[in-house]
Write a structure and sequence with these properties.
With 133 residues, this protein is α+β, with helices and mostly antiparallel strands. It has helices at 4-16, 42-47, 99-109, 122-128; strands at residues 21-25, 29-33, 53-57, 65-69, 84-90, 115-119. Strand 5, helix 3 and strand 6 form a beta-alpha-beta unit. Helix 1 (4-16) crosses helix 4 (122-128).
């Protein structure tokens, strides 16, 4: 069974291939910023006299991918409508949303008119943005 990170990479790659879709990875978390060094703990860096700092990025609970879907048509009359913002949360086969993710979904994204989907595959993501299998 696939872990979440390879599914996420595949989904992003699949969405970026669509000409009417603009998609990007929405990084969230706490990172160590060090010029020229990677993979070392903050304490180890600082104890060796290396300037390092913590950088907090993103909004806790926000979706893995943010997507703008263009070329939308009104289902009732077929007239062109504005692009649709879609938040895509990628989960493994048995993964589940955390409470903070559900709160962000309803209180931040959907409350403002965005569409939010949880997907477990590229096919599900493509269907979510209006592309059939």
């Amino acid at each position: 069974m696939k872990r979440e990170s390879p599914i996420l990479a595949d989904v992003l790659k699949g969405l970026k291939r669509l000409p009417h879709v603009y998609a990007w990875r929405n990084q969230v978390g706490l990172f160590i910023a060090v010029s020229g060094r990677q993979g070392l703990a903050l304490e180890v860096l600082r104890s060796n006299g290396i300037a390092a700092r913590l950088v907090d990025v993103g909004v806790e609970g926000s979706a893995d991918l943010l997507v703008i879907v263009g070329d939308q048509a009104c289902p009732a009359c077929g007239t062109a409508v504005h692009p649709m913002p879609v938040a895509v949360e990628v989960k493994s086969h048995d993964g589940a949303q955390q409470p903070v993710q559900k709160t962000w979904q309803t209180q931040t994204w959907e409350r403002r008119g965005g569409r939010y989907v949880v997907v477990r595959s590229v096919v599900e993501a493509l269907c979510a943005v209006g592309v059939e299998k």
